[in-house]
Amino acid sequence: MRTRQQKTEEVELLRKKLGDASSVVLVDYRGLTVADANDLRNRLRAVGDGNIEYRVSKNTLVRLASEGTKLECLAELMVGPTALALSYDEPSTLAKVLVDYAKVNEDFEIKGGLIEGQVVDLASIQRLAALPSKDELRGMLAGMVQAPLRNLAGTIYALLGNLRNALEQHQKQLETG
């Protein structure tokens, strides 16, 4: 059993983490084994580069930590076993992992959350998971910027090749004629 001091320290730690997080998703982990929870943590670590965290805390402590913050509105979702998935960077990465994990593990349920200041439900999190990540969008943008330049370079190369062929033919005509 935790002492009052330990609980106070946990509330302060949670308050800091919740304040720093750009996205918080609440999940029901009822029925997950320890191995399942570790599998989820490993998946989040693999894609998060240290910017995603999965925590299981008592609902009372989370409520206390969220008092007076924008997360206070999530108190109604803190019923039953609730874990927090926190993202300190890109919310779509967190959403993708959680939605994918919920597809393969029927005991795992996404309750809702707060993403960049907006309260979201399961449907919103699923839509967010379907969006490309920032890196994918950057790649698409780079391809869109690069395509016209590549086409221009190809056109110029073809024109220079045609000019070279014309000059070679003219030179042959002068040599034979």
- For the record, the count of structural domains works out to 2
Q: Share of helix among residues?
A: 55-70%
CATH class of the largest domain: Alpha Beta
Mean pLDDT: 87
Low-confidence segments, ≥5 residues, pLDDT <50?
none
The CATH topology name of the largest domain reads: Alpha-Beta Plaits
Q: What form results from the Cα inertia axes? A: rod-shaped
For this entry, what is the oligomeric state of its chains?
single chain
Beta-strand portion reads 5-15%
CATH architecture of the largest domain: 2-Layer Sandwich
Strands in their spatial order, largest beta sheet: 2-3-1-4-5
Total number of β-strand segments?
A: 5
Identify the notable features of this structure and list them briefly.
177 residues; alpha+beta; Alpha-Beta Plaits; five-stranded antiparallel β-sheet
Q: What this model shows, in words?
A:
The chain has 177 residues and is an alpha+beta fold. It has two domains: 128 residues, Ribosomal protein L10, N-terminal RNA-binding domain (Alpha-Beta Plaits, 2-Layer Sandwich); 46 residues. 60% of the residues lie in helices and 15% in strands. The chain contains six helices and five strands; from the N terminus they run αβαβαβαββαα. The protein has a five-stranded antiparallel beta sheet. Helix 4 packs across helix 5. The longest helix is centred in the last third of the chain and has 43 residues. The protein is rod-shaped and about 105 Å long. The model has no long low-confidence stretch (mean pLDDT 87).
